[in-house]
Hints:
Elements: H1 2-21, H2 26-46, H3 68-91, H4 98-105, E1 109-115, E2 125-134, E3 139-140, E4 145-149, E5 164-171, H5 173-176, E6 182-191, E7 207-215
Antiparallel strand pairs: 1-5, 2-3, 2-4, 2-6, 6-7
Amino acid sequence: RFQQVQSMMCDLMEWRSQLLSGTLPKDELKELKQKVTSKIDYGNKILELDLIVRDEDGNILDPDKTSVISLFHAHEEATNKITERIKEEMSKDQPDYASYSRMSSSPTHSLYVFVRNFVCRIGEDAELFMSLYDPQKLTIISENYLVRWGSRGFPKEIDMLNNLKVVFTDLGNKDLSRDKIYLVCQIVRVGRMDLRDSNSKKYTQGLRRPFGVAGN
Length: 216
Protein backbone atom coordinates (compact mmCIF):
# COMPACT_ATOMS: atom_id res chain seq x y z
CA ARG A 1 0.00 0.00 0.00
CA PHE A 2 2.89 2.38 0.76
CA GLN A 3 4.40 1.85 -2.70
CA GLN A 4 0.99 2.38 -4.27
CA VAL A 5 0.46 5.71 -2.49
CA GLN A 6 4.06 6.71 -3.18
CA SER A 7 3.52 6.27 -6.91
CA MET A 8 0.38 8.43 -6.84
CA MET A 9 2.07 11.14 -4.77
CA CYS A 10 4.95 11.32 -7.26
CA ASP A 11 2.44 11.83 -10.07
CA LEU A 12 0.51 14.47 -8.11
CA MET A 13 3.65 16.44 -7.23
CA GLU A 14 4.76 16.47 -10.87
CA TRP A 15 1.33 17.58 -12.09
CA ARG A 16 1.11 20.21 -9.35
CA SER A 17 4.34 21.82 -10.54
CA GLN A 18 2.92 21.97 -14.06
CA LEU A 19 -0.30 23.58 -12.83
CA LEU A 20 1.60 26.19 -10.81
CA SER A 21 3.90 27.05 -13.70
CA GLY A 22 1.13 28.99 -15.42
CA THR A 23 2.48 28.09 -18.85
CA LEU A 24 -0.10 25.52 -19.95
CA PRO A 25 -2.72 26.38 -22.60
CA LYS A 26 -6.32 26.45 -21.40
CA ASP A 27 -7.29 23.08 -22.92
CA GLU A 28 -4.22 21.31 -21.51
CA LEU A 29 -4.79 22.96 -18.13
CA LYS A 30 -8.35 21.60 -18.01
CA GLU A 31 -7.21 18.12 -19.05
CA LEU A 32 -4.44 18.07 -16.44
CA LYS A 33 -6.83 19.27 -13.74
CA GLN A 34 -9.15 16.37 -14.54
CA LYS A 35 -6.23 13.93 -14.29
CA VAL A 36 -5.31 15.33 -10.89
CA THR A 37 -8.83 15.10 -9.49
CA SER A 38 -9.25 11.58 -10.91
CA LYS A 39 -6.02 10.48 -9.24
CA ILE A 40 -7.10 12.03 -5.91
CA ASP A 41 -10.52 10.34 -6.04
CA TYR A 42 -8.90 6.99 -6.83
CA GLY A 43 -6.47 7.42 -3.95
CA ASN A 44 -9.29 8.28 -1.55
CA LYS A 45 -11.10 5.12 -2.58
CA ILE A 46 -8.24 2.70 -2.00
CA LEU A 47 -7.51 4.40 1.33
CA GLU A 48 -11.19 4.01 2.27
CA LEU A 49 -11.72 7.75 2.61
CA ASP A 50 -14.86 9.71 1.73
CA LEU A 51 -15.90 10.01 -1.91
CA ILE A 52 -15.85 13.58 -3.25
CA VAL A 53 -18.24 14.40 -6.08
CA ARG A 54 -17.24 16.94 -8.71
CA ASP A 55 -18.56 18.69 -11.79
CA GLU A 56 -17.20 18.27 -15.33
CA ASP A 57 -14.38 20.75 -14.64
CA GLY A 58 -13.22 18.86 -11.54
CA ASN A 59 -14.60 21.38 -9.04
CA ILE A 60 -16.23 20.05 -5.84
CA LEU A 61 -20.01 20.26 -5.97
CA ASP A 62 -21.61 22.48 -3.36
CA PRO A 63 -24.41 20.48 -1.64
CA ASP A 64 -26.18 23.73 -0.74
CA LYS A 65 -26.45 24.71 -4.41
CA THR A 66 -26.91 21.26 -5.98
CA SER A 67 -30.14 19.28 -5.99
CA VAL A 68 -30.35 15.90 -4.26
CA ILE A 69 -30.98 14.12 -7.56
CA SER A 70 -27.94 15.77 -9.17
CA LEU A 71 -25.78 14.78 -6.21
CA PHE A 72 -27.03 11.20 -6.44
CA HIS A 73 -26.19 10.98 -10.15
CA ALA A 74 -22.78 12.55 -9.49
CA HIS A 75 -22.08 9.99 -6.74
CA GLU A 76 -23.19 7.16 -9.00
CA GLU A 77 -21.05 8.34 -11.91
CA ALA A 78 -17.99 8.89 -9.69
CA THR A 79 -18.38 5.43 -8.14
CA ASN A 80 -18.60 3.77 -11.55
CA LYS A 81 -15.48 5.55 -12.81
CA ILE A 82 -13.47 4.61 -9.74
CA THR A 83 -14.68 1.00 -9.87
CA GLU A 84 -13.60 0.73 -13.51
CA ARG A 85 -10.23 2.24 -12.62
CA ILE A 86 -9.70 -0.30 -9.84
CA LYS A 87 -10.54 -3.16 -12.21
CA GLU A 88 -8.02 -1.85 -14.73
CA GLU A 89 -5.31 -1.64 -12.08
CA MET A 90 -6.05 -5.17 -10.81
CA SER A 91 -5.97 -6.61 -14.32
CA LYS A 92 -2.41 -5.45 -14.88
CA ASP A 93 0.31 -8.05 -14.58
CA GLN A 94 2.66 -5.53 -12.98
CA PRO A 95 2.12 -4.11 -9.50
CA ASP A 96 0.90 -0.53 -9.03
CA TYR A 97 4.36 0.80 -8.24
CA ALA A 98 5.48 -0.15 -11.76
CA SER A 99 4.32 3.29 -12.89
CA TYR A 100 6.82 4.80 -10.47
CA SER A 101 9.56 2.58 -11.90
CA ARG A 102 8.69 3.67 -15.42
CA MET A 103 8.76 7.27 -14.35
CA SER A 104 12.19 6.76 -12.79
CA SER A 105 13.57 5.12 -15.92
CA SER A 106 12.08 7.77 -18.21
CA PRO A 107 11.88 10.89 -16.04
CA THR A 108 10.71 14.36 -16.90
CA HIS A 109 12.67 17.39 -15.79
CA SER A 110 11.84 21.00 -15.05
CA LEU A 111 13.79 24.26 -15.12
CA TYR A 112 12.97 26.82 -12.43
CA VAL A 113 13.64 30.48 -13.26
CA PHE A 114 13.40 33.34 -10.76
CA VAL A 115 13.59 36.81 -12.34
CA ARG A 116 15.11 39.15 -9.75
CA ASN A 117 15.77 42.24 -11.84
CA PHE A 118 15.95 43.64 -15.36
CA VAL A 119 18.73 46.19 -15.88
CA CYS A 120 18.50 47.90 -19.26
CA ARG A 121 17.99 51.61 -19.93
CA ILE A 122 15.07 51.73 -22.32
CA GLY A 123 13.16 54.79 -21.16
CA GLU A 124 9.77 53.21 -21.82
CA ASP A 125 7.73 50.18 -20.89
CA ALA A 126 8.98 46.81 -22.09
CA GLU A 127 7.82 43.23 -22.49
CA LEU A 128 10.28 40.43 -21.73
CA PHE A 129 9.69 37.07 -23.41
CA MET A 130 11.73 34.22 -21.92
CA SER A 131 11.96 30.79 -23.54
CA LEU A 132 14.25 27.81 -24.04
CA TYR A 133 16.10 27.71 -27.36
CA ASP A 134 17.99 24.98 -29.23
CA PRO A 135 20.84 26.68 -31.15
CA GLN A 136 21.57 23.58 -33.23
CA LYS A 137 18.05 23.28 -34.66
CA LEU A 138 17.46 27.06 -34.48
CA THR A 139 14.12 26.60 -32.79
CA ILE A 140 12.37 27.50 -29.54
CA ILE A 141 11.49 24.36 -27.54
CA SER A 142 9.20 25.89 -24.91
CA GLU A 143 6.41 28.38 -24.50
CA ASN A 144 7.18 32.01 -23.69
CA TYR A 145 7.14 33.41 -20.17
CA LEU A 146 6.00 37.04 -20.33
CA VAL A 147 7.10 39.75 -17.89
CA ARG A 148 5.79 43.30 -18.34
CA TRP A 149 8.42 45.77 -17.13
CA GLY A 150 7.68 49.44 -16.45
CA SER A 151 9.73 52.44 -17.54
CA ARG A 152 10.65 53.24 -13.93
CA GLY A 153 12.56 49.98 -13.47
CA PHE A 154 9.85 47.92 -11.77
CA PRO A 155 7.38 45.26 -12.96
CA LYS A 156 4.14 46.71 -14.31
CA GLU A 157 2.28 44.62 -11.73
CA ILE A 158 4.10 45.98 -8.69
CA ASP A 159 2.72 43.19 -6.48
CA MET A 160 4.80 40.77 -8.57
CA LEU A 161 8.05 42.38 -7.43
CA ASN A 162 10.40 39.65 -6.13
CA ASN A 163 7.80 37.07 -7.18
CA LEU A 164 8.50 36.64 -10.89
CA LYS A 165 8.92 32.88 -11.11
CA VAL A 166 8.34 30.29 -13.82
CA VAL A 167 8.88 26.55 -14.22
CA PHE A 168 9.61 25.19 -17.71
CA THR A 169 8.16 21.67 -17.49
CA ASP A 170 8.11 18.39 -19.44
CA LEU A 171 11.80 18.39 -20.34
CA GLY A 172 12.70 14.78 -21.10
CA ASN A 173 15.93 12.88 -21.69
CA LYS A 174 15.81 13.97 -25.32
CA ASP A 175 16.02 17.61 -24.25
CA LEU A 176 18.89 16.93 -21.84
CA SER A 177 20.81 15.16 -24.61
CA ARG A 178 20.84 18.30 -26.77
CA ASP A 179 24.30 19.82 -27.25
CA LYS A 180 23.18 23.15 -25.84
CA ILE A 181 20.02 24.76 -24.52
CA TYR A 182 19.88 28.52 -24.11
CA LEU A 183 17.55 30.56 -21.94
CA VAL A 184 16.69 33.40 -24.30
CA CYS A 185 15.10 36.72 -23.33
CA GLN A 186 13.56 38.81 -26.10
CA ILE A 187 12.97 42.48 -25.26
CA VAL A 188 10.13 44.41 -26.88
CA ARG A 189 9.82 48.15 -26.30
CA VAL A 190 6.29 49.49 -25.94
CA GLY A 191 5.85 53.20 -26.66
CA ARG A 192 6.84 55.71 -29.32
CA MET A 193 7.95 54.86 -32.84
CA ASP A 194 11.32 56.44 -32.16
CA LEU A 195 12.82 57.17 -28.76
CA ARG A 196 14.00 60.54 -30.10
CA ASP A 197 10.40 61.65 -30.62
CA SER A 198 9.15 64.09 -28.03
CA ASN A 199 6.47 62.83 -25.67
CA SER A 200 3.76 64.75 -27.50
CA LYS A 201 0.22 63.72 -28.38
CA LYS A 202 0.94 64.16 -32.08
CA TYR A 203 3.22 61.11 -32.02
CA THR A 204 1.84 57.59 -32.02
CA GLN A 205 1.98 55.87 -28.64
CA GLY A 206 1.84 52.21 -27.54
CA LEU A 207 3.74 50.72 -30.47
CA ARG A 208 5.61 47.45 -29.92
CA ARG A 209 9.15 47.60 -31.28
CA PRO A 210 11.93 44.96 -31.04
CA PHE A 211 14.66 46.31 -28.77
CA GLY A 212 17.10 43.52 -27.99
CA VAL A 213 17.76 39.89 -27.16
CA ALA A 214 19.99 38.09 -24.69
CA GLY A 215 20.85 34.44 -24.04
CA ASN A 216 22.56 32.35 -21.44
